[in-house]
Design brief:
Elements: H1 2-9, H2 25-47, H3 49-58, H4 67-94, H5 97-117, H6 121-149, H7 152-179, H8 182-189, H9 191-201, H10 207-212, H11 216-227, H12 231-246, H13 253-261, H14 264-282, H15 285-290, H16 292-300, H17 306-330, H18 333-359, H19 368-384, H20 389-393, H21 403-431, H22 433-455, H23 464-473, H24 480-483
Helix pairs in contact: 2-6, 2-7, 2-9, 4-5, 4-6, 4-21, 5-6, 5-8, 5-9, 6-7, 6-21, 7-8, 7-17, 14-21, 14-22, 14-23, 16-17, 17-19, 18-19, 18-22, 21-22
Keywords: Glycoprotein, Membrane, Transmembrane, Transmembrane helix
InterPro entries: MFS_dom (IPR020846), MFS_sugar_transport-like (IPR005828), MFS_trans_sf (IPR036259), MFS_Trehalose_Transporter (IPR050549), Sugar/inositol_transpt (IPR003663), Sugar_transporter_CS (IPR005829)
GO molecular function: transmembrane transporter activity
Length: about 475
């Protein structure tokens, strides 16, 4: 089997081969599957706490765990995100995008096995920290790799596939935990990074990274393998190599870094992506994943059918993200972001008002049809834009020479917001109630949507060089020269 995979993924030695004249979509899809499987594991990391916590609380013969300890079970992985973000940029530049993901998968497998075989909650927290560390490591790495190997025509589709994979991972972890003990569910989750590692092992490296290392021959072979050698693709390759040729002047690393961070094509997208990522977290997306069972108990009004409602919510999230993948090719990033932000705000505020009326007994009994319906609307509209788009765009808005630094800082900020929202959610539910918490998330999303309306650019159908030129020059005049080469 491995021999067949190797033959399928063998990088061509020249551009004359007929299979090198294709658009490369099938090859890119195959390699992207490796990153998608790692993103499956990232989703499972976010979702498994919704299974572990209720099972721990109901297991006989175990110690009683406090609310504070349970919040750490949910939040430990998000705390570790920050440390993974810190090393991600360095490792992807030092070892390459592909090799970094292979190393990452080994750590991911070990983390899941530690959770699965843990005999006490402290070993479990160690495993949660490792898987969260890997989740943070993958955060900037996956979008950068996918963004560099895919063509402009399919880049949005493949980048959106990362968010779809995360949602699918959440669903799979919940599905495993619905029918199995959390330890067995955790061991099954280790299969995702294992399969991802095998796929990436037989794949070529990113052509952009090879060009940055001045390995031009391998860069060309990798580029043709992923993209084909059509005239449009050849023009993009020539422009990419020309850009790297200009940067061959040797400078001290600190001086190069100083020059890069002062460029508008670095700090403009950095500011936009930081705000976008924080808005995503403050919309409550990951709070729903981490505390799904507890949230469903409130929305349903009893403890019955909470797991069924949880799985239905997960399926709805996956369907919404599949729809987002399709819409991104037809509509673009900016319209989806604005639409999603507006309707996410409305759904959260409406749900907040309804739960407030129920709590004040103005409405005597909660109606699961209404509460779950409003939550379903929130899940759909948030996953059409607010949830997937930051991960989609972080792999394409930064120039090649600042991609590792920019994506690393952006995802680091979302990791801090991730930890903050997940860790504080139980306290917020207790102090201001579910209605007050959803109102806070809704108003936060509203503020972020206003910012995105004024500053978020459209990147659909543009090459990475054209996107950099947009931020560099601040107008469309300069980039018009490049538009002639765009599909």
């Amino acid at each position: 089997m491995f021999t067949l995979i190797r033959q399928c993924c063998d990088v061509p030695t020249g551009i004359e081969r007929d299979d090198c004249k294709s658009d490369g979509m099938s090859q890119t899809a195959f390699v992207s599957m490796g990153s998608f499987l790692l993103s499956f594991s990232a989703g499972a990391t976010a979702g498994i706490s919704a299974i572990i916590i209720p099972q721990l609380l109901h297991e006989e013969g175990r110690h009683k765990y406090s609310t504070e300890m349970m919040s750490w079970v949910a939040a430990m992985s998000s705390l570790a995100l920050l440390f993974g973000n810190m090393i991600s940029g360095y490792l992807m530049e030092r070892f390459g995008r592909r090799m970094s993901q292979i190393i990452l998968s080994i750590f991911y497998i070990s983390g899941w096995l530690i959770i699965g075989f843990s005999t006490n909650i402290y070993f479990m927290l160690v495993g949660r920290f490792i898987t969260g560390f890997c989740q943070g490591w993958l955060g900037p790495l996956g979008p950068v790799f996918i963004g560099e190997i895919s063509s402009p025509a399919y880049r949005g589709l493949f980048l959106a596939g990362l968010s779809l994979s995360i949602a699918s991972g959440v669903f799979m972890s919940h599905l495993f935990g619905t029918f199995l003990h959390w330890s067995h569910a955790s061991i099954l989750c280790a299969l995702f990074p294992l399969l991802g590692c095998v796929t990436l092992y037989f794949s070529p490296e990113s052509p952009s990274w090879l060009a940055s290392k001045n390995d031009i021959d391998k860069c060309k072979k990798s580029f043709y393998w992923y993209r084909g050698n059509s005239l449009v693709m050849q023009n993009e390759l020539d422009k990419m190599l020309a850009e790297y040729e200009k940067k061959k002047e040797v400078k001290p690393k600190w001086e190069t870094l100083k020059d890069n961070i002062q460029k508008p094509e670095f700090w403009k997208p950095l500011c936009i992506m930081i705000v976008f990522f924080i808005v995503t977290q403050l919309s409550g997306i990951n709070v729903i994943c981490a505390y799904t069972t507890d949230i469903m108990k409130v929305l349903i009004g009893n403890n019955k059918n909470t797991y069924t409602a949880m799985l239905a919510t997960d399926i709805l999230r996956v369907v919404a993200l599949i729809t987002a993948c399709i819409l991104l090719r037809r509509i673009g990033r900016r319209p989806l972001a604005i639409f999603s932000g507006v309707f996410t705000t409305l759904s959260l505020i409406t749900l907040s008002i309804y739960l407030y009326l129920v709590e004040k007994r103005i409405i005597r009994h909660i109606s699961p049809l209404i509460s779950l319906g409003l939550m379903a609307i929130y899940i759909v509209v948030s996953n059409l834009g607010i949830s997937p788009l930051p991960w989609n765009m972080v792999g394409e808005v930064f120039a090649s020479e600042t991609k590792g630094l920019g994506s690393g800082i952006s995802v680091m900020m979302t990791s801090m917001a991730f930890f903050g929202t997940v860790k504080t959610a139980p306290a917020m539910f207790h102090s201001i109630g579910h209605h007050g918490t959803y109102l806070f998330y809704g108003l936060s999303t509203l503020c972020g949507t206003v910012f995105l309306y004024f500053f978020l650019p459209e990147t659909r159908g543009k090459t990475l060089l054209q996107i950099a030129e947009h931020f560099r020059y601040g107008n469309k005049e300069k980039s018009k020269e490049s538009n002639n080469h765009c599909v």
